[in-house]
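Hi everyone,

Forwarding the result from last night's run.
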Amino acid sequence: MDVVIMAGGRGTRLGMGEKPCVQILRHPLISYVIDALDKAKNIGQIYVAVSHATPNTEKYVSNKYQGQVKVIKTVGGDYVGDMICAVENAGIKEPVMIIMSDLALITPELIDEIIDEYYKCGKPALSVHVPISVCKKLGLRPDTVFNREGNLIVPTGVNVLDGKYIRQEQDDYNLIMENPQLALNINTPDDLERCENKLLERST
């Protein structure tokens, strides 16, 4: 399965320049996502969707990965529009994973598990969520919360869509995973510190 990493946003809430290039333990945030995808068993071509707001991200990916990861330029207008532009420009007509560039705690094993669940669910689209309780344990206050059959769930920024119908609304399966590594998007300096601590815990 091919994957598009969304890396064209301004990251204004974090206030540290281009968010994909923000350093954590001496590595840019986006490198954690790319490296996890590269080690996953079921990932094909990796694309990074950039915009005029993220020129340094484009340079970093091009220089670091030397064509192994392909860069796609988008308008940078809105998330959905940029996603559609990236998938169409990449010519992807099969299921494609869409993932945010700030999920630094994502692992190859989680990526493969999500892909396995997609092919089991029997629907054209899948969105990954965590229960709100997982966010609360991390001290997070999510911006978006959905009520699914009485359960409060939070989107993680990982989705799978059918590239053939990327401009259409697709029947979506909500995959709920009680995994804190999916809950931590980097939006504030506090999030960055939490993520750094988690990465340090992982390395010990």
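The chain has a mean pLDDT of 93.

Cheers,
N.
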